[in-house]
Every structure is written in structure tokens, then in C-alpha cells.
Write a structure and sequence with these properties.
This protein has two domains: about 5-65, Roll (2,3-Dihydroxybiphenyl 1,2-Dioxygenase, domain 1); about 75-140, Signal recognition particle alu RNA binding heterodimer, srp9/1 (2-Layer Sandwich), CATH 3.30.720. It is built from three helices and eight strands. It has helices spanning about 15-25, 50-55, 90-95, and strands at about 5-10, 25-35, 40-45, 60-65, 80-85, 100-105, 110-115, 120-125.
Amino acid sequence: MRYLHTMVRIRDIDTSLRFYCDALGMKEVRRIENEKGRFTLIFLAAPEDEARALSEKAPMLELTYNWDGEDYGSARNFGHLAFLVDDIYTTCARLQAAGVTINRPPRDGHMAFVRSPDLISIELLQKGAALAPQEPWASMPNTGSW
């Protein structure tokens, strides 16, 4: 058995791609438009996995856009997606500059949480050892839920 992908439903393609690709840094590797089923599938990979994902040898994130919109609720019951990042402070700063709320700041230099435009919780984990605590993150309070 091999893990292939995680699917999340999205409400708006452009808004979601701004979050996952522009702000978070993922890469679109494949897109399927299904007129009969009235949906679009967009497969994303982390930058380090992009080449392997093209041949389906790395896990991907599948964004599913149903053309006939529906309300998916808060998506809190989904759990979360987790990404290993090279520098959690740089990643959080980039997301914050893109207008993303840092719901659980990386006060410990190891872990942070944000939410996608569709309220999917995203866990960010520092690659390797935790970084030394750093402001403004060390004293930043939690915001909302994740």
C-alpha cells in the first residue's frame, strides 16, 4: 500500500490557490476538469516533492472544487494537514504578509497552525530541531481556533 493524496473540498479555486500556492508555496502539478461530474480536481505538491509528484511517486494535496457550490461548514472535523518547513518563522512571516492569520503562533520555534480559506487547519512543523524562541512569535497569543 502507498499513500497517494489527501482531498479537501474548496469553495473558490482562485482564493484557495492564492493560499496554498502563493502564500504557502505549494506547486500545482495536475488539474482535471470533469464536465460530466461538474467538478475540478487540482493536485498540489510541496516544492521538494514536485518532481516526484509528477510521476505520482510523492503524496499530494487534492483540491476538489464542485461547480454546484455547497456549504461544507467549518471543516474543523477534518483534522489538519501537516507540512515540514525549513524555517517556521520565515514561513509564518510570509503567510502573515499574504494576509493569513497565524492562529497558533510558533512560540516554541517548532509548531504553528493556520487555516485555509476553506477553514482547513494547517499544521506547520519546523524541520530538525526547534528554533530558538523569537519575537514577535514568542509573545503572540493564539487567535481563533485551528
